Every structure is written in structure tokens, then in C-alpha cells.
Amino acid sequence: MGRLRFSFGTMSSGKSTLALQIHHNLSATNMGLLCSMHDRAGAHVSSALGVSTPAVEVHPDLNFVSLARNHQAAHGALDYLVCDEAQFYTDPQVEQLAEVVDELDVDVYAFGLLTDFRGKLFPGSARLLEIADERMELQVQARCWCGEAATHNARLHDGIQVYDGDVVLIDDGSAAQVTYELRCRSHWISGESGPVADRFKAAG
Ligand SMILES: [Zn+2]
């Protein structure tokens, strides 16, 4: 029987690095596919450490059951799917992953961010928490500027934290400079930047 596994964390929790490592290890003896969506490198999974591997680009209309069946028909087997950036997958796509596990006996390793900059669960992550066989919080913990474990992703416009806006931001070049920062809950709520960021602001 396959399993649907969901590993989640903040930015910089090593999600993509772990996704690449699992794909690398399994692909030595098994047939599998690496999938991603909105990755910084396009149809690749790339880790912050600089490793990058080609991946199936997941569009909102991609059907994972069809993808898996087509792969089995063309190559005779499909043992696993490694799915990065799964927080962006639609509800039907997450349900298709469960179907791939149950009907086609494929192992699925999904990775994603838990909450967005507003502090709300991403839709794909919410559905995965609801229906995955296993849920694992990644243990590589990033730190807030104060030294506490970072549990929240903050979005900043020109250095000021914002709590409203589109979840997926298309950079059209005209908007304020958008950056992300990891914060503990307390500093995510207060919106306070650390002393280093304040120094930059003073200098800029
Ligand atoms: Zn803090």
C-alpha cells in the first residue's frame, strides 16, 4: 500500500532540499517523478543550497491521476511522486494525490509551507493536513531575528510588514519592493523588524 506523506515547515526549513534528497535516493532503485509549482527556477526544484533538478511543472489544470496513469503506461511502472510547493496545489489535485496512493499504490511525498504571510493555512496544505496518512513538521528550524524559533512568514513592502494582499504575487515591476522574513509569532504579530533591518533602513 502506498502512503500519502505531507512534510511542512516555514521558508528556509529545508523543504526543497529534502524533496531533492528523497527523489535522488529513491530514483536509484525506483521509478518516480519530481513535481513542483511556482518554483524560483521554473520547471525545476531548486534548493536554497544551490542544487537544482528538472521537474514536472504543476499547473492548476494538471491531473495527477492522469499523470500517474500515463507514466505507468509509457514506462511500465510508477513507484513514487515527490511533490514540492504543494501549498499551491488545488483541493482536487490533493485529492488526486490520495487517489494515486490508494488506487495505483504509489508513494507520495508532498512538501509545503503551512501558512502564508497573512498567517492563514495555504489551501493545498489545509487539504493535505486533512487527508494525508502522515504529517510531519520539518525539524530544520529557522530563527527570528530575536533568536526564537521562526514559525511565521512575514511579507514586507519596502521593509514594512503587510498582512493583506494576493497570496501569490506576480511581480510586474511597478509595486513596492517585496521581501519575506521569518519571524516568531510575537514579532510577526507586532510587525517589528530586528536591529539589523533597522540599521539598513537608517542607511537606506
Ligand atoms: Zn522574534
Provide an overview of this structure.
It is a single chain. This protein has 204 residues and is an alpha/beta fold. It folds into 2 domains: 4-137, 3-Layer(aba) Sandwich (Rossmann fold), CATH 3.40.50.300; 152-203, no CATH class. 30% of the residues lie in helices and 24% in strands. The protein has helices at residues 15-26, 64-75, 91-104, 123-131, 185-190, 195-203, and strands at 4-9, 32-36, 44-46, 52-54, 56-57, 80-83, 107-113, 134-137, 152-157, 160-162, 178-183. A hairpin with a 2-residue loop joins β9 (152-157) and β10 (160-162). α2 runs parallel beside α3 and α3 runs parallel beside α4 (123-131). The structure holds zinc ion. The site of zinc ion (ZN) has 7 residues, from α5.
Average the pLDDT over all residues and give the rounded result: 88
The CATH architecture category of the largest domain equals: 3-Layer(aba) Sandwich
Q: What's the CATH C level of the largest domain?
A: Alpha Beta
- Low-pLDDT stretches are none
Number of domains: 2
Number of helices: 6
The H/E string reads EHEEEEHEHEHEEEEHH
Strand content: 15-25%
Instruction: Give the spatial strand order of the biggest sheet.
Output: 5-2-6-7-1-8
Would you kindly provide a brief summary of this structure?
The protein is α/β, with parallel strands linked by helices and 204 residues long. It contains six helices and eleven strands.
